[in-house]
From TrEMBL:
Family classification: Belongs to the multicopper oxidase family.
InterPro entries: Cu-oxidase-like_N (IPR011707), Cu-oxidase_2nd (IPR001117), Cu-oxidase_C (IPR011706), Cu-oxidase_fam (IPR045087), Cu_oxidase_CS (IPR033138), Cu_oxidase_Cu_BS (IPR002355), Cupredoxin (IPR008972)
A molecular function (GO) term: hydroquinone:oxygen oxidoreductase activity
Pfam families per record: Cu-oxidase, Cu-oxidase_2, Cu-oxidase_3
Leader sequence residues: 1-21
Keyword Oxidoreductase found: yes
Source organism per UniProt: Penicillium angulare
Protein's recorded name: Laccase abr2
GO biological process: pigment metabolic process
Location of the Plastocyanin-like domain: 31-144, 172-372, 451-573
Length: 591
């Protein structure tokens, strides 16, 4: 048999593809440099000279080597949000937990296997650096053996085919908020003033957006009744935010307002930067996007004027598809959507607005049908600039009721229960998640993976391998935002929630009295679950997971200033089956 050159090239390409499906190298260089974002220049963490970072694309089953070289004038680490790190707890990227932080001029090699499929993202996990722009998408193409949920949308063959093709061509959309100050400026001002800096300056879609300033009259007219209830006789600041001297929002602590910096709570200057344009082809019938919230502060409500969205995956896992018009994304959650391209061809506005009560903030992008001329009218919004329904028909995703596809069952009874109190701690900007507040300095202590007693014991819970664990997150005080609580390593079930104090000692006991507050039949499966807003009463939520991956993993709020302020807890999963750490990870923080 004789090989032609083209046959040889084909053979080479096949071998190369086979080889690259096994082991993927991805290396990034982090630098700290001035960039214009949202129309304003500030220092930003660049990933290979870009903000946001480049996407990492994998196929389920791939092994990844992810090298980080730190050229920033400060320590960094990189975490892979939602990646379970099964068997590789040393690659989770959390300083003081799984590694020492990477200092200037050093590199670190993360290595893990993509056992899961779907949408994730990598992001900074050292101090507040996620708010300095260190994040990028991760997409893991599902293997063919994973059943798709699309037949629940349509049973028609041509439709199914169009949805499969749309999924193959899916693209990530990074949604975020943005501040004009760096994370260290914000943290220093919080420590000096005693205040929780809960206002952003702009919202961004794929790193693009502008700052809009509403007039006093516009702001007063937009202020919602719920906001007015919290404001009393005060008004929103010129950046649409609650003022720093608002008692309900900041709690009853002493403050030094003279230590605030301009733009933290007020000081609006408009900018006019290009926004993102998504071009779609009506011939495709559907387009798929993977929405990723890399927001540091605000929940984000996302909608495409006049269009429906089928949400078909959440946090990197298929769900029974749900038809909605708007999604309120808690920080760090991901939603994959299929959008039917069945509207009059033209330009439609994509609207993203703050989903949090403390601030009115918005941005836009364009959803453009390829080859079409402009609509001869503005497109009709589903959602108002304050995050309310703009029509009687608008359907919001109900985040707590998404059903995994296929349904996965959780144990009916847990082996271990931890009731974790989430509250302020001695200052507006300090927080607890458990009995104590996790001091930010502890990030520089010996990693718990190597030394289980490196930090105070009231910041640690210890679980047994194989155990089913219930985490009851009890938000103790009223007037709290929704807290997106993220558990590192494997996913958890969101099994219940309620108002008031969780007065029982276990879910089993609570279920005997309030069964309707729980769902053990087809609960949502997540890596980040948000507590309900608590305007007037305390609230609680119950999360259940099985310990399958021994290691030191953080549980924390994904509102970055809350994590900085101590809303975090170390979980030593599987202390009875602790892993043997490879020497290269144990003894060195770099190579
Ligand atoms: C980032 O830059 C480095 C050094 O220039 C290069 O080797 C690497 O391939 C780049 N990574 C990506 C993801 O583009
Ligand atoms: C930076 O990281 C090194 C190595 O982990 C650590 O010794 C040092 O304390 C860190 N420095 C700061 C300022 O966090
Ligand atoms: C606003 O209300 C507070 C008490 O709720 C009161 O102390 C203060 O004087 C009021 N300020 C104005 C300007 O009315
Ligand atoms: C605020 O705290 C002070 C000191 O602890 C206390 O005297 C005061 O009653 C508190 N005020 C409110 C409104 O809770
Ligand atoms: C925010 O919404 C207002 C009112 O709809 C609009 O005029 C403004 O352009 C929007 N801002 C951005 C940055 O899109
Ligand atoms: C928003 O929804 C509520 C409740 O369904 C409805 O009463 C209201 O009319 C809607 N708002 C608009 C602007 O249609
Ligand atoms: C979501 O669904 C749950 C369960 O049906 C319900 O209790 C809750 O009120 C819904 N939430 C919203 C915001 O509609
Ligand atoms: C926080 O406040 C509590 C009770 O008021 C007090 O016992 C504790 O010492 C304070 N902790 C710190 C770190 O200030
Ligand atoms: C573990 O950390 C504790 C607390 O810092 C320290 O006393 C102990 O010496 C450390 N153990 C090892 C083996 O380094
Ligand atoms: C918090 O304190 C309670 C009561 O002392 C204790 O049972 C529980 O284990 C503590 N939790 C943590 C995380 O230390
Ligand atoms: C931990 O428990 C899981 C689930 O029972 C099991 O599959 C795994 O082998 C255990 N790991 C170790 C190291 O014992
Ligand atoms: Cu929080």
């Amino acid at each position: 048999m004789k090989f032609s050159i083209s046959n040889l090239i084909l053979l080479f390409v096949c071998l190369f593809q086979w080889a690259s499906a096994e082991l993927v190298y991805f290396s990034i260089v982090l630098t700290w440099a001035q960039r214009e974002v949202a129309g304003f220049t500030r220092d930003v963490i660049l990933v290979n000279n870009s903000y946001p970072g480049p996407p990492l694309k994998l196929v389920q089953g791939d092994e990844v080597i992810f090298d980080v070289r730190n050229e920033c004038p400060f320590n960094v680490t990189v975490h892979f949000h939602g990646i379970e790190q099964q068997g590789t707890p040393w690659s989770d990227g959390v300083p003081g937990m799984s590694q020492r932080s990477i200092y200037t001029g050093h590199s670190f090699r993360y290595q893990w296997t993509a056992h899961q499929y779907g949408t994730y993202f990598y992001h900074a996990h050292h101090r507040g650096q996620i708010e300095d722009g260190l994040y990028g998408p991760i997409y893991i193409e599902p293997s063919n053996s994973e059943e798709r949920p699309f037949s629940m949308i349509s049973s028609e063959e041509s439709q199914l085919q169009a949805m499969l093709v749309a999924e193959q061509n899916t693209s990530p959309v990074l949604l975020s908020d943005w501040r004009l100050l760096t994370s260290e400026q914000i943290w220093a001002a919080e420590e000096a003033s005693g205040l929780d800096a809960f206002c952003a300056n702009a919202l961004l879609i794929n790193g693009k957006g502008s700052v809009s300033c509403f007039s006093r009259e516009e702001l007063d007219a937009l202020t919602t009744p719920d906001q007015q209830a919290g404001l009393g006789n005060q008004s929103l600041t010129d950046i649409g935010c609650f003022p720093p001297n608002n008692a309900p929002a900041e709690g009853n602590y002493t403050h030094d307002y003279s230590k605030l910096l301009p733009t933290m709570f007020e000081g609006c200057t408009p900018s006019y930067s290009p926004h993102e344009i998504f071009t779609v082809d009506a011939n495709d019938q559907y387009v798929s996007f993977d929405l990723i919230s890399s927001s540091g502060l605000l929940h984000l409500i996302y909608s495409i004027d006049e269009h429906d969205m089928y949400v078909y995956a959440v946090d990197g896992r298929y769900i029974q598809p749900v038809l909605v018009n708007a999604i309120n994304l808690p920080n760090a959650n991901r939603y994959s959507i299929l959008v039917p391209l069945d509207k009059e061809p033209g330009d439609y506005t994509i609207r993203m607005v703050s989903g949090d009560q403390q601030q009115i903030l918005n941005t836009t992008a364009t959803f453009r049908y390829k080859g079409a001329s402009q609509l001869n009218r503005p497109s009709d919004p589903w959602v108002t600039v304050t995050g309310l329904n703009a029509t009687a028909e608008t359907v919001f995703l109900n985040d707590t009721t998404t059903i995994p596809f296929p349904v996965v069952s959780s144990a009916s009874v847990a082996d271990e229960t931890y009731i974790l109190h989430l509250d302020r701690y001695n200052a507006s900007y300090r927080w607890t998640l458990g009995n104590s507040s996790f001091n930010l300095q502890l990030e520089e202590s010996q990693p718990l993976l190597f030394n289980q007693t490196a930090i105070p014991s009231d910041l640690i819970i210890r679980t047994k391998n194989g155990s089913w664990v219930d985490l009851i997150i009890q938000v103790d005080s009223a007037f709290q935002p929704s807290h997106p609580i993220h558990k590192h390593s494997n996913k958890h079930f969101f099994i219940g929630q309620g108002t008031g104090e969780f007065t029982w000692s276990s879910v089993e006991e609570a279920m005997a009295e309030i069964p309707d507050s729980f769902n053990l039949v087809n609960p949502s499966l997540r890596d980040t679950s948000a507590t309900a807003l608590s305007s007037t009463d305390p609230v609680w939520m119950a999360l259940r997971y099985q310990v399958v991956n021994p290691g030191a993993f953080l549980l924390h709020c994904h509102i970055q200033i809350h994590q900085d302020g101590g809303m975090a807890l170390a979980i030593l999963d599987g202390v009875d089956a602790w892993p043997r750490i490879p020497d290269r990870y144990r003894f060195d923080s770099g190579f």
